[in-house]
Amino acid sequence: MSASRRSGTTDELGPGEPGEPCGSDLLAALLDGMDAALCAFDADGIVTHWNREAERILGWTAAEAVGRHGFAGWAVRSADAEEVQARLMSVMHSPGRQVHEFALVTKDGGRVLVRTQSAAVRGPDGKPAGVYCAFSEVHAQIDLERSIALSEALLEDASWGVVLVDADLRPAVVNAHAARALGTGRTSALGRPLGELLEQGVEELEAALTHVLAEGAPPAPAEMWVTVRAPEGGQRRCWRSGFLRLASPLAEEPVPLGVGWLFRDVTEARQAEQEAALLRFRTNQLHRAARAAAECEDPVEAATVHLDFALAGFADHALVDRVVGGPRAECGQAPAPVRLVRLAETPAGAPGPSVLTGAAGLPVRYPAGHPAPQCVERAGTVRADAGPVPAERAREWALERQWPGETVHALCAVLRNRGRTLGVVTFLRGAGRNRFERHDTAYAEDVAGRIAAALDLAGE
Predict the structure, then answer these.
(1) DSSP line for 193-236
(2) pLDDT in tens, 54-70
(3) DSSP state of 164
C-alpha cells in the first residue's frame, strides 16, 4: 500500500502526464525517501500519511497505520493517548511549529522516546485542514545536535586551529585560532592558495592534504615546520597537525568534500627540545675532547684536539691564530698593532683533522677591520656575516678576509688565559647553515678557553 491514502490533499496534485507518475505516486515516493519519520493527520485526527522511516522506527506499516484515529490503542499507551493526541492536534490553532517528546509504542511492544516537530496543514481556503508530524528517535536527534554543536565549537571557540580545505586545496572555513596563526582574517583567508599564506612548508602541507583526499586520514598526527608570511618578516613555526577526509553523507559512494585540518603550535616545545639535545651533544663533545686532550703530550696537539671535537655539528671550518711575539700586552701599557700568525686550521673543502701550519712564523695578511684582529683588540667575541648578497659577491667577501670561498658566517672568539690574550679562534659556516646565534657564542667561548689553556701551557 502507498505511504499515503489516495484521497484528500494528495488528489489535489492533479493527474500526471502520460508516461509520468501521478501526483499521489510522486508524493508517496518523496515521503518514503525522507530520512525523518513522517506522519500526518486530517482535521479529525485520522492518520493520512505514514512513510518508510516511521515504519522502520515503530514497526507499523503504512497499511496498518493509515486510517487509524490518532495513536490510541496501538502507537501509544492508553493512559497517554489523550494527552499525546491533544498536544499533536493543538498545533492546528497555533502559529509556527511545536516540538514535543513522546514515548511511542513499537509493534513488538517496546517503547521508543521520540522528538516530534508538528505544524498545521492549511487548506485552499487557508483554514486548518490537518497536521503533519515529523519525528525521530531522541538519541539520534541528540547525536545530530551534538555533532552540530561540536562543529560550531570547533569553528568558534577551539584552542587549536581548524581549517576546512576544499578539494582544490583552498581554505573554505577558518576558525579564529587558525586565522591568528596564519596572520590573517577569517574571511580574507577563504579561497586563497596556501602559498599566499605561507612562505615555506607549502609543498609539504599540500602533499599531505592531497594524500588525505586520495587515501584517507593518516594514523597519527604529523609535525610540520612552516614559515608564515608577515609584514615584519616570515615567522617560522612548528605545527602539530591532524587531518580528516570529509565525505558527503548524502552520496551512495564516498565523495570527498575536502579535508579537515586541525593543528596546534608546538614551536616553543620543539625549540626547547632541540636546544636541550644540542646542549647535551655539545657537553658530551667537550667531555670527550677533554679526555682525548689529556692523553696528548704536546699542548699544541691538545689544542687541535679541542678544535676538532668542537667542529662537529658546529661549523664547517676553523682557524687558530696566535698573537705574534707572545701574549698581548697587559692593560695600561701602550697597545701594539695586532699581528697574528696561523697556528692551525682544518682542511678547506673536505672534512679532516686540524693541520698545524705557520712554521715560518709569517703574519697573516688580514685587511683593516677584519673580525680576527678586532676580536683580539676588544678581547671579546666578534660575529660577521656576508649578508643577503649574490653568491659571487659572498665569495669575494670571504676571500677578501682570507677565508674559504664558501664562507658566509663567521665567529671569532678570543683566546685568553691567566689574564693574557694569546690569539683568536675563528669558526666558519657555509650557506647551508644558519648564522651564529647567542648560544653558539657561549659554546665557542667555552672551546676558546680550553684551547687558550693548552696554548698557554705550550708557551711556558
Answers:
(1) -GGGTEEESHHHHHHHHHHHHHH---SS-EEEEEEE--TT--EE
(2) 888 889 888 888 989 88
(3) E
